[in-house]
Specification:
123 residues; mainly beta; 7-stranded mixed beta sheet; 4-stranded antiparallel beta sheet; 11 strands
């Protein structure tokens, strides 16, 4: 069974950091672009970042540029999202999702999704 599992969420103060992980089971991530999306209560899901299957290409939402960094370790079958300088507006459930090879900002293009991990930024 193909599965993505997110971890690393939690409660952090403004200005703090978290590292989210997206681990795959049942398939390898080698040929998959991985996107991170988030959804806050009452808001639409939005794309946060994406990394291509090769790791060469990455993209970020304007709201997180310079603060978040996406990376991948194919040997561990895991993609990471390092989140620094967190703000209250970063509070959301974060999801990772997979699609073949190249990134997309269109969520329906991603076929496999994790269950999400809650990130709460609050003092």
């Amino acid at each position: 069974q193909l599965q993505l599992v997110e971890s690393g969420g939690g409660l952090v103060q403004p200005g703090g950091s978290l590292r989210l992980s997206c681990a795959a089971s049942g398939f390898t991530l080698d040929h998959n672009a991985i996107g991170w999306f988030r959804q806050a209560p009452g808001k639409e899901r939005e794309g946060v970042s994406c990394i291509s299957s090769s790791g060469v290409s990455t993209n970020y939402a304007n709201s997180v540029k310079g603060r978040f960094t996406i990376s991948r370790d194919n040997a561990k079958n895991t993609v990471y999202l390092q989140m620094n300088s967190l703000k209250p507006e970063d509070t959301a459930v974060y999801y990772c999702a997979a699609k073949r090879y190249i990134c997309s900002t269109y969520a329906p293009n991603f076929g496999s999704w994790g269950q999400g991990t809650q990130v709460t930024v609050s003092s």
